[in-house]
Amino acid sequence: MFIKKITLRTAGASLAAIVLITAQPLRAQVSSDSARLEKLERAVELLEKQNAELQAEIKSLKKETTSVADGKFKKKVTYDGKTYVEKAVAEEKAPLYVQQRGTELKLVLGGFVQMNFEDGDVSAFEGRFGQTALKDRFRLRRARINLTGDFAEQFDFKMEGDFENSDGLNSNRTAFEATDIFINWHQFPWAQVKMGQWKAPFGLEQLTPDTTLYTIERTLPTGAITPERQIGVQLWGKPLAVIGPDYADLLTYYAGIFNGNGRNTTNNDNNNFMYVGRLESSLFKDVFGKGSFLKLGGDILNSRDDKGTNISQSLTLLVNSDGSLSPFVLPGADERTAWSVDAWLRMGPFDLIGEFLQERVNPRSTNGPPGFDRFMTDGFYVTGGYYLIPKKLQAVVQWQHLNPGQKGNDGISSIVAGLNYYIHGDDLKLMVNYIHTWSDFREANPEFGQDDFDEVIGRMQLMF
To answer: How many CA atoms within 13 Å lie on the side-chain side of 333?
Structure first.
């Protein structure tokens, strides 16, 4: 360190050595010449040693002075109880930070990871048995990262992608794929405008975030009938918010126009659009205890699709010859209409959730006869949840059923029993589900083999 304090240590030591030599008593004169020479040699050695120390100190001071001149150090004065000492100390480096390009009021980076263990008749509740059966596996179910923000001009946005999805090149490879990408203008709570890609407003369970579901996977009726993520524009809002915040959730409406052929597509399948609407109302908030409510909802959908469009975006709908299910890719043009109703009751530690969905798929003649026969699909689920330990341990039971309506007696039903352990709320939780599934088609046609199936799914979820 650079020290300005002036010390006479070296000079004093040198002077003392000289005085010691020159101020000898007269009797030293009678000493032998060898003794005198020995004393002189010791004095010279002492002077040389002290001179070397002084040179080293000067060299060190020069280096520190150069560092100060380069701007790497700054001056600092300290007091040791006797003298003030001025030192050159290293300047602290400024922390690394990222600054947004726009004028966001809020910018949040987040995401979550869901890891599954699946054993037994894997995904049989989705109709994956027989020719579409899956094997036991560990599964990276979702691995998402997202960025959300608010702008001063009354806009908010979200950008989210998933690392889990297969890239289609190799079954062992994954690729990053967009999930939600949208901009929402929220200046007027009763008339907000949303543009981009997100879940079309249809189906209570489908619209419930993946991270807050009471069961590990969504039900088969939800996966087969709801449209999932689409690209389009939507008008939505809470019209009673103008009265006051306490009335805002009494009515929420959604009206959207979408391409109708799924997410991450650059083109519409035709010149027609998918029209989706939803109404929901939250009643009796906090009437049956703090946090209690009754939520009611209803949805409607209409779409005209061309040949080759997958109308079961999430899971499976097409009934195969052995009663199993596959994604339904249209063999010809169609027009489909769907509707659903749902209810969610919460009273203290108890939740009861139910939903019924129905879809009619009618073939359209374009250039020739229809490519398939019309059919009607419907299904329902009922889910009950109860906290055995408040906010920590939750027991869940569920009954679900889907009637694909394409073959006689082709229904698939499942019963789910599960436990959810909330280590730190939904941010860190463990889930386990036991699912028993049976196929009406397989039971009526025993030549195709097993008609009931069992599966155990475990999940660890981490949100950040």
So the answer is: 12
Detail the DSSP E strand segments found in 70-136: 73-79, 84-90, 104-120
How far apart are the C-alpha atoms of 413 and 404, rounded to whole Å? 11
In this predicted model, what pLDDT tens digit does every residue of 343-376 receive, in sequence order? 999 999 999 999 999 999 999 987 777 888 999 9
Inter-residue contact 161 to 178 (CB < 8 Å)? yes
CATH superfamily of 104-463: Porin (2.40.160.10)
3-state helix, strand, coil in the chain (%, to 5): 20, 45, 35
Q: Give the start-to-end residue ranges of the domains of the chain.
A: 9-90, 104-463
Beta bridge partners of 337: 302, 360
- Within 10 A of 229 (CB to CB), how many other CB atoms are there? 19
Q: CA–CA separation, 302 vs 371, rounded Å?
A: 19
Q: Computed from CA positions of residues 257, 261, 267, 272, in that sequence, does the dihedral angle turn out positive or negative?
A: negative
CA–CA gap between residue 43 and residue 19 (Å, rounded) = 11
Give one DSSP letter per residue of 16-29, joined into a string: HHHHHHHT--GGGG
pTM given for the model: 0.76
